[in-house]
Write a structure and sequence with these properties.
The structure is a single chain. The strands form three sheets. Strands 1, 2, 3, 4, 5 and 6 form a six-stranded antiparallel beta sheet that branches. This protein has a five-stranded mixed beta sheet with strand order 7-13-12-9-10, with no helix packed on it. Strands 11-8-14 form a three-stranded mixed beta sheet. The chain folds into two domains: 71 residues, no CATH class; 104 residues, no CATH class. It is mainly beta. Helix content is 12%, strand content 41%.
Length: 219
Amino acid sequence: MMTKALLVAAAAACLLTSGPALAQRPAALVEEVSGSIPGVQLMDTLPVGKTIALTPKQTLVLSYLASCTNETITGGTVTIGGRESAVEGGKVERTALPCDGGALLLAANESGKAGVTVMRDAPVGLPGAKPRAQITLYKTRPMLVTGAPGRVTFEPLEGGAEPVTVNVPGKAIDLAKGKTALKPGALYKVSAGDKSYVVKVDPAAKDGGGPALGRLIRF
């Protein structure tokens, strides 16, 4: 039975994760936007509570990190929620997509923090043990968001294949538009500057592009 002290602690935890803290939590990824919307750009992550006004023919495509929901919104006023948008005076179409929601939320929270290396090594003393994947991709050609020009290296963690390095000329690059493709079922250490992730490609991952949700790596 939960004691009174534990009940109080649980209530306090709920309070800490609500209000201003919740409002700052990144929730939705901007996949596409027609025209110009102040404060909204491609591959931005929008916080809970943000409100966006669209013209009647303006379209905004969002992907929700927690619910793996892709939304195409036309017109109206959009309020970002935790798992989906509230749309007033407009039209919204929703599609469920495969994605690693928890890992995407963690990466969004860590994005832009200098000196953070999020790769976790395999436990010491277990010969042949592999590190646990932090992100799972559901397409073989990821979308990379680095925030600044630089190099991203894909180091295979099994099979002895050579690392592959990709140059990112701006803040992001879509590998679906190039020749670089990862191997379904493979495990990689993906590094940019002083940050890295252990990334697994789902065995059933398909080749190609489409929404960034499900193939996003954000540093």
